[in-house]
Amino acid sequence: MIVGAALHHANTHGTKVMIKDNTASGKADAWKEAMASEARAVNPLHDVNSSRNQLIQDAVKTEDWSEYNEYQAKQHPAWYNMENGEAVKNKEYWAELAESRAQALKQAEAENDQEDIKTWKSALESAVDSLKKAPGEMPHIPVFANGSKLAEKYDIEPASQSWFDSKYNDPLVSSQGKFSNNAWYDNPYFEENPESLEKTLAAIEEHGSSEQIEKANEVNKELIARMEEEEAEETNNVKAVETQAGQTVSIRDLQTNNHLQQALQDALASDEKLDVSVQDYLLQNL
Q1: pLDDT in tens, 221-234
Q2: Rounded to an integer, what distance in angstroms lies between the CA atom of residue 137 and that of residue 272?
Q3: Distance CA 275, CA 45 (A)
Q4: Which 3 state secondary structure label does DSSP give 81?
Q5: What CA–CA distance (Å, rounded) separates 151 from 12?
Q6: Taking all residues of the chain, what is their mean pLDDT, rounded to a whole number?
Q7: What is the reported pTM?
């Protein structure tokens, strides 16, 4: 039932973006489904989310989640460990899920909702079982901390000092499964699919606001200028330079470097987009 609900959510919401339809005469609140280009302009992570949701649908059909886990391990590296060459959800992942389910159980108990109590109790027990079996150190889990009754009931050991001294002791790890913040254009998906980044930037230029377009153009100009400077410096320092026709075009147009990252971050800081994914839906609703 849980997987089915998630799949339905992916099919009905995950890849569709609704935008205001300014062409609908006489309708003040008319909306239409956005085309792919428009969707990318509304949410630059549109392709990322669509790819994730497609992997979920494929996994449900084949009952093989390895490709999905590999994908998610790149998106949320703090939530996965590599075991025998495969991405496996670690204790950080299950700790977050157990925390959310324990909170849901508390809410159900406070409302004396017997049906929900039964549902969330079963879900919590499943998460705790996976938590204990998962690789990695036991993290600090607020709902199980300070000798709580739940910790005693489910025999959850407290986090060690080594965990508190590690990089995993960071709110970003528990909330997003990341060790550091990154801008949308730094998403690992774009590194492997640079053509998607090109389409997204083009969509912003086509459908974005005048301010967005102006800033995007500034970023593109800076990127090209910096690439040309680096190429000129390399030519001066290296006597024999191997060149291939068209090789630098894709690099100049599609790849991002540290200079571009900072420029885009400054330029689009006011237009931060949310990565609304089925993964987030699962954590928030299961």
Answers
A1: 755 665 677 777 77
A2: 33
A3: 6
A4: strand
A5: 38
A6: 78
A7: 0.66
